[in-house]
Predict the structure.
Amino acid sequence: MFNTHPLRVSLHNEIHSRPAERVESPMVIRHLVFSLQSSERNTSREHLCQLLRDHHHSEPAPTSNHFRADLVTFKLRWELHTEFLSLTIFRLLTADEQAVDSAQKLSALDAVPKKWLAAMPGLCIVNTSMAVLKPNTPAAQSTLERQGDDLVVGTRVGEGQAQVFTDFSIDPDGVSHWMVLDLASTPKRMGRLVQRLLEIETYRMAALMGLPVARESGALLARCEADLAQLAQDIRQAAPEEEAALLDRLTRLAADVESHYAATHSRFSASSAYFDLVRKRIEDIREERMTGPQTIRGFMDRRLSPAMNTCAWAVRRQQSLSERISRMSSLLQTRVEIEQQEATRELLHTMNERQGVQLKMQSAVEGLSVAAITYYFTGLVGYVVKGAKEQGIPLDPELTTAAAVPLIAMVVWLGVRRLHNKIMHA
């Protein structure tokens, strides 16, 4: 009945694109995140299709950025983000594995082909193992006994339906470990909790990607600030003929700062956005403090917030330096413009003086012109009088010519003045 917008269906389904998995205890989960170059995005999709073909499973759509598959011995969750690829493996524990006394001995990757894992594209930035167990299992009891020992985080979440433990450290194999105790949660709620915890770990590392950039920026910004201070001193003491060179130095410094800002702005913006996601996910799990270990929020406030403040400080420092350079450039340009205006004023004054001299010379020339024109017309009158005398008219040529000179001079002078007045009026 209606003309449908071509994006309506895809936009409507966006909120359903990444639903949480149902998580039943006892289960072990491995979450892997790989940073990707733009050229590796298609490679990662083909790499997933290879695993699915080996397990006789249907492949995702060519434009899909999210895919879930049940491959019998394990479940797979594949997500392609803007900067990275996340891969999550879910595997139920066997009866023998439930008797293991340490969660670090359990791995979800045991059912995944090792050759396929070794060929994963990109660079691994997150390698997290999470065990979801009942409190009465040996591994859970071992974790509870370590609450006051070396566990950094221990918190009750989900209105008391689960407990979360982690030390936020990496073992010799490069894996960080989380323990989730299922007290009275449903598989659906446990799935949402697990997804939020994994997102906290993912976005925490993604946010920290801006920290090395901020530290590198500190050295560059310090050098630029020193150059700007020296420029300000040189500008204060500079002679007019040196200002063009100073303006060139200031322009080059502004170009360095702006190019650095352009190169780092996207990274700092992404870190800020990831940090906001971390805080939002911490709010979503609804923590309750336990006796002994600190909460996830407390840990992030003490460890992650300073790093994010460093990134924010680098951004503010960039903006402040750019504004200072802009103000100094405006001041220097104003100084150059004032000196140019002064030079222009002196030039106009000189031109006015020259114009006055020209007017005086023109007046002198006008006098000579009157004399010359009078002389010319007097000669004509003389010729006329001599011709008239030859015709019998009684006129004395010398006397008539002499009498005509004042009259001719007056007429010529009045004519020249009238012409001069017309030109000046125009």
User: Anything to note?
Assistant: The first strand starts at residue 27 and ends at 35. The chain has a mean pLDDT of 86.
